[in-house]
Every structure is written in structure tokens, then in C-alpha cells.
Design brief:
Neuraminidase; 4 domains; Arc Repressor Mutant, subunit A
């Protein structure tokens, strides 16, 4: 007997599986699993029943059965996240879903079948005009007149019905299989008057629900810069702004699509997709992405120098899952993604510079340690069973992945051309059902001074992490590539460029107070250490301080260095602190005195005050502190702030609040106080790159994208282009 399902036919007698006329080779035990599942189509078959029937007296574990089912799914092209044939029923077993259709057998020299013409004669049906019904060795003509005719009528009707059923069965079995849904590509615009909130591109701005039917994203109003969450089913024209999500970033859906989690106000929150009041799940002062698991657990990154954490989607206790290893130069673990089997992919950041490629790592299911898979990755996503998508700069690569052995089983192939014909992708999300959504990378930014908006700023445009010298004549910054980053100096008058470092990872440049040398953090392997280099003769000196990883942010005229410290004794795990490294000292003097984060400290021109970032209030704000003690602080910003800089006279502080550059007057008299900040610069599609002590503003012009790309059935294209390697189970 042969049975068909989808494009497949299973021959019970010979235990063979066929697909559209071609035999699909399967090991005997895999065939045994298939046969038993087909026998109980629609029923949940317990694991033990399958092992008892297929492996009989052999001693095996659930692993052998799982491997056989995985092998069978690969042969059928089935996705465990959206199964068409074999469904996993959690903690119970497996169920065969597809409808089954009996196929008529044909005469293939193994015997007569209902389709064999001679079979009718052997059953008593003659091939001439009329029908005959066998009764022993006598044949009674169907054309006999009289009472015999009435006696044969029921038999004639039965034969006709049988032939009709056979014809219908043959027709249905030979009907063409329904065509797979076509892949469709289209664009989804942001809500009117808004653009997608890229910000730090390493933080996701959009997500697609697991069933591929809805998108959620963070967007900002072009006029005001205010950001919030928006949600849109892909079969609708309009997006809905979710009230109560001001400042939201990095959204991600629950598995059933009914909820969206996001980061805002230093918290991880959730809100119903249909709207309502958001609720707080956990503290998360620094958004690093999250993912919602099938069992209701959420894995997320929420600390500036921490690893991954787990929390229930109902809130409650937070469990630390990973901790960065400072000895290996790890700074943070971010951007987690659940694998189909329960493991977790994530990215290990090895540089404080945003968007710098890090390392792709994985935590196997139920494991307590992680494994590094490869470098040069900014983000990775599980893309259905057996595939991983990796962002490497603006490119997107795909690789096959074996979750049993926790290894990449194929090299990374670029998928960019199959997604977009433009320069690259800034963001990416993919559903297990095959829907892909992405934001195209913006065009290269144009850099200019705010007072000369039509004039390009020249060589300084290639620098990241720009620091302006105290005399405003030169700028130091980073030039990064896949292998690392180096410090360069640009003369703002002539445009002349000077390379300061050569090779390795060099970050966080800060000028000495006299403008003659650069202090920076450097590493070739292991932890970051600090060094200095003179501008004129490029003489280098190592600063031999110890006590965690340190990143210089400012210097004073007397040689003190303000540093951001990670992983030192006295700092809570995952947190950052501000320290002062005194001349000749071998360890920094920590100023942070609580379970919160402080960073980016900058000395005032006279060295008497420090302006810095602090999230003691629950949101990152700018405060001023006296570096000589751990005493009080003066609040400068009121609605969030980052990256403080002093004016040349020490009477004002510049800082950023979203896309705005703010200026607050500071009065150092006793008691010191700050005045209400005023807006200095605010323009859609532009961000502040640097500020001189005199208040001149360097601007990067780069409009955020206003449309997203959506592709339906993209994972099917991926499977066709990159088939998974098939390995036989044990």
C-alpha cells in the first residue's frame, strides 16, 4: 500500500519514501519512525512508544530519537517552528500532521493491482461489452433477459461505484501538488512624520512576530525628535503608536505575538500589542537587546558592562546567565537570540566603539558556559531550524548551524543581494515562519560644521569617537576596520592627518591639558591597558595602572586622568564607575559610591570639577562632582543627557539629549549650581559629532530610514540556496 502526503509518497510494502518520482534515501530507523507516525496520523505518539517500536531491545536515550526526527525533518524540508508534517508536543512526543491519501497500486511485476486490466478478469469481470460477475466457475451474462437481469442489478451498481471511486482516487493522487506561496517583497513606511530610530545601530529598532504577521518598531518624530513604539500588522496600511512607550527602543515580540517587550527609562518593560498600560519587568539601564523564549523566559542585556540575564515574562527575580571575561578583553554580552532547541546566540563586544564587530557566541541548551563560534560579527539571529544570519558591518551572511554539535557547519554566504539591491542593512529581524524585515543602511554621512552647513568638514569626517584639543586646533579620533581601530589626529586648519597608533584595538582617545599628547586605551589580546603618545615625535609611554579595564576620558593640568572603569574590585558586577588615576598611582581612585553606573567624566578647565554621566536617578543624566571627594553632586540635565563637554571658561557644560545639543550654565560658587539647559542645536537627520571649547558644533548629516523592507517566504529561498548538510543519526 502506498500513501501520499504533500509531494511525498510512502511505500509501506517496500519501506521506501519517494518525492515526485525520486527516491529519498533514509536510514532504516528513520523510516521506522516515519512509518509509526503515519500509522497514528493526527495522534500524539509518546517518545517511549517510538523507541520501543523502532529500536526494540537496543538501549537508547531520547537523544537518538531526537536525532532521527531531526534527520527526518531535514529530508522532508520541515521546520519545527512551523511544522507541516511532524509536530513536537512538549514533554509528550510527536504527531504527524499532514493529511494522508491512499494511492492505487500499479502493476510493477510484483503482482496485480486494481489498475491492472487482467485483474478484472481474475475477479470475474470480462473485458467485452457488458459485465460479468463470478459465482464459482459459472459466468452469468449481464445481457441476459428476464429475471436474471434484476438479480444482477445490485452487482452492476456496486461495480460501477467501485470504478467511480477508483477513478476519483487516481485523479486526486495524480493532481498537481498545490504551489508553495510565492515570496513577496514590499516596503512598509514608518508612520507619517516619523523615521525609524536607528541611534546606536547595534540596538535593534524593529522586530517581526513569530508568525510573521506583524511588525513592531521604534520611531522618532521628525519635528520633535520624540520616540515611541509603533506596531502594524503586515496586511494593514496604518501603523499604531502605542501610548506609554515614550523613549522606547529595541522592541521584541512574545512568541504568541500578543505582547511586545522594550527598553525605556532604564527598565525592561512589556505592553500588549493591542495597547494598554506597560508594566516593568526588570531594571535595565543600558539597552542591549532581548528575546522572548517559548517557556515564558526573557533573555536580555541591560547593564553597561554586564552579560545576559533571565527574567520571567511576569517579572520577578532576575538571574545572571553570563558574565563577560575581562581577561579575554570582553566588555559586554548583547543581542541575544533563542535557538529552536533552546540554546541562545549572542554577541560578545570587545570594543567600546559602537558598531565595532565582536564575537559570535552560543550558550547550548541547559549549559552554564558559552562557546565562541567566530569573530567579525555585530549581531546574529537564529533563522529557522539549522540556519544562522549574521550581520558583519553592512553585509548579511547566512551559515548552516548544527545545534546538536553547537557548530557552524558551513561558511558564511552573503545574503545581501537577496534582500536589497542597495548598499547594506542597518537592522534585521526574521520570523521562524519565513518573514524577514530589515532597514537599509543609510548613505554615508556628510560631516560639516554647523556654522558652515554647506561645506564639508574634510578629513575629520572619517573619524569616530572625536575629541577636540583644548586649543580647538586639532581633533583626535578613531579609524576602524574589521581588524581593529587606530588613533589618528587631524589638523583642523590644514586638514593634515597624523597616525598615532599602529595595529591592535586602540580606543577612547583623550587630550592632555597642554594638547601635546594623547592618552588612550589599547589591547592586542587580553584586557585593555592605558598608554600615552606624544603628537610631535610619537613617543609612546605605557601607563602601568591596574584594577579592571580602564578607558581614559579626560586629563587635568596636574596629570590626573579621569577614567571609566569596568570589572574592578568595589564595582558591582556589570556596572561602570568613574575613577581618578593620580600621577604615579598604580590603581584608580573610585568615585562611584552606589549600585549605579557612572562614566564619561570630563575635567573642568581648572581641574576643580568633573562633569559626568550618572544613572543614579534611574535615567542617564549629567551631573557635576568634586573629584576630591565622594560628596554631593549638582544636577545639570533634567530630561536625560550624555557626553558632557566643558566650555573654555568652565562656566557652561554642553551635553547631548537624543539628537539635541544642550548647554547649561554652571555656577561654581558655594553652593555650586546649574541653570536650566537651553537647546543649542536640534535638526532632523543630524547628530552632533563633536563640540569645541568655544561652542562650535561638528555635525553628521545622515537621515534615518523612513521605510522597512519586508520579504515573505524568504527562509524558503535561503533553504533552496543553502541546503543543510545531512548527517545520519545514530
Amino acid at each position: 500500500m502506498r500513501i501520499s502526503f504533500g509531494p511525498f509518497a510512502f511505500d509501506r510494502q517496500n519501506r521506501l519514501l519517494w518525492r515526485e518520482g525520486s527516491e529519498v534515501a533514509l536510514p532504516p530507523r528513520v523510516l521506522g519512525v516515519l512509518e509509526l507516525l503515519i500509522d497514528r496520523q493526527g495522534q500524539v505518539v509518546p517518545r517511549q512508544d517510538l523507541m520501543d517500536a523502532v529500536w526494540k531491545d537496543a538501549f537508547v536515550t531520547d537523544t537518538s530519537l531526537a536525532e532521527a526526527v531531526s534527520f527526518l525533518r531535514q529530508a522532508l524540508g520541515d521546520d519545527p517552528q512551523a511544522p507541516r508534517y511532524i509536530q513536537t508536543v512538549h514533554r509528550r512526543g510527536y504527531r504527524f500532521l499532514a493529511p494522508l491519501t491512499p494511492l492505487p497500486l500499479i502493476n510493477d511485476d510484483r503482482g496485480l493491482t486494481p489498475e491492472d486490466p487482467d485483474n478484472g478478469a481474475r475477479r470475474g469481470l470480462t473485458p467485452n461489452s457488458g459485465f460479468a460477475v463470478a459465482s464459482g466457475d459459472r459466468a452469468v451474462s449481464a445481457t441476459t433477459r428476464g429475471s436474471k437481469e434484476w438479480e444482477l442489478l445490485p452487482w452492476i451498481v456496486a461495480v460501477l461505484c467501485t470504478l467511480a471511486v477508483a477513478a476519483l482516487t487516481w485523479g486526486s493522487s495524480h493532481a498537481p501538488a498545490p504551489e508553495m506561496p510565492l515570496a513577496a517583497r514590499f516596503e512598509v513606511p514608518a508612520a507619517d512624520g516619523t523615521s525609524f530610530a536607528l541611534g546606536d545601530r547595534a540596538t535593534p529598532a524593529l522586530d517581526v512576530s513569530a508568525d510573521g504577521r506583524a511588525l513592531a518598531w521604534s520611531a522618532c518624530e521628525n519635528a520633535s525628535g520624540a520616540c515611541a513604539l509603533y506596531v502594524r500588522p503586515i496586511d494593514r496600511f496604518e501603523a499604531t503608536r502605542l501610548a506609554g512607550t515614550d523613549g522606547a527602543t529595541a522592541p521584541f515580540f512574545s512568541r504568541d505575538g500578543r505582547w511586545i517587550a522594550f527598553f525605556a527609562d532604564g527598565k525592561l518593560k512589556k505592553i500588549a500589542t493591542s495597547g494598554g498600560a506597560p508594566s516593568v519587568l526588570a531594571d535595565a539601564p543600558f539597552a542591549g537587546g532581548g528575546a522572548w523564549g517559548r517557556d515564558g523566559r526573557i533573555v536580555f542585556s541591560g547593564l553597561p558592562a554586564g552579560g545576559l540575564s533571565l527574567v520571567s515574562d511576569q517579572g520577578g527575580a532576575v538571574t545572571t546567565l553570563t558574565t563577560p571575561d575581562a581577561r579575554r578583553g570582553e566588555l559586554r554580552h548583547v543581542l541575544p537570540s533563542w535557538l529552536p532547541g533552546g540554546g541562545i546566540l549572542f554577541t560578545v563586544t570587545i570594543s567600546p566603539v559602537p558598531d565595532t564587530p565582536g564575537q559570535l557566541a552560543v550558550i547550548p541548551r541547559d549549559a552554564t558556559t558559552w562557546k565562541t563560534l567566530r569573530g567579525g560579527v555585530t549581531r546574529a539571529l537564529a533563522a529557522g531550524a539549522g540556519y544562522v544570519l549574521m550581520a558583519t558591518g553592512d553585509d548579511v551572511q547566512a551559515a548552516t548551524f548544527d545545534e546538536r554539535t553547537v557548530t557552524l557547519t558551513g561558511g558564511g554566504d552573503s545574503m545581501l543581494a537577496s534582500i536589497t539591491s542597495r548598499a547594506g542593512l542597518a537592522q534585521l529581524a526574521v520570523a521562524s515562519t519565513g518573514t524577514l524585515a530589515g532597514l537599509e543602511a543609510p548613505s554615508p554621512p556628510r560631516v560639516s560644521w554647523a556654522d558652515r552647513p554647506g561645506e564639508d568638514a574634510g578629513a575629520i569626517a572619517r573619524l569616530a569617537s572625536i575629541a577636540i584639543s583644548p586649543d580647538a586646533k586639532r581633533a583626535a579620533g578613531l579609524v576602524t576596520d574589521a581588524s581593529g581601530s587606530d588613533v589618528w589626529v587631524v589638523d583642523l586648519g590644514s586638514g593634515a592627518q597624523t597616525r598615532i597608533t599602529y595595529g591592535g584595538m586602540n580606543v577612547s582617545p583623550a587630550w592632555s591639558a597642554d594638547g601635546r599628547q594623547i592618552v588612550f586605551a589599547t589591547r592586542t589580546a587580553g584586557v585593555f591597558t592605558m598608554a600615552s603618545r606624544r603628537i610631535d615625535d610619537r613617543t609612546e609611554a605605557t601607563i602601568g595602572a591596574r584594577g579592571g579595564q580602564m578607558f581614559p576620558t579626560s586629563t587635568a593640568a596636574d596629570g590626573r586622568i579621569a577614567v571609566t572603569v569596568m570589572g574592578a574590585d568595589g564595582i558591582p558586577a556589570g556596572r561602570t564607575a568613574v575613577g581618578i588615576l593620580d600621577p604615579g598611582a598604580n590603581a584608580p581612585r573610585l568615585l562611584t559610591d552606589g549600585p549605579f553606573d557612572e562614566s564619561a567624566a570630563v575635567f573642568s578647565p581648572d581641574g576643580q570639577w568633573l562633569a559626568l554621566e550618572s544613572d543614579e536617578s534611574g535615567r542617564t543624566e549629567i551631573v557635576v562632582r568634586d573629584p576630591r571627594n565622594k560628596g554631593g553632586r549638582v544636577a545639570i540635565s533634567q530630561e536625560g543627557g550624555s557626553r558632557p563637554r566643558w566650555s573654555a571658561d568652565g562656566r557652561a557644560i554642553y551635553f547631548e539629549a537624543g539628537r539635541r545639543l544642550m548647554r547649561a550654565v554652571f555656577d561654581p560658587s558655594s553652593p555650586p549650581k546649574g541653570q536650566r539647559p537651553e537647546i543649542v542645536f536640534d535638526r532632523a537627520g543630524a547628530r552632533v559629532a563633536a563640540v569645541t571649547p568655544a561652542g562650535r558644533v561638528l555635525v553628521r548629516h545622515q537621515p534615518a530610514p523612513s521605510t522597512a523592507i519586508v520579504i515573505l517566504q524568504w527562509l524558503r529561498e535561503l533553504r533552496e540556496r543553502m541546503p543543510q548538510p545531512v548527517t545520519a543519526p545514530r
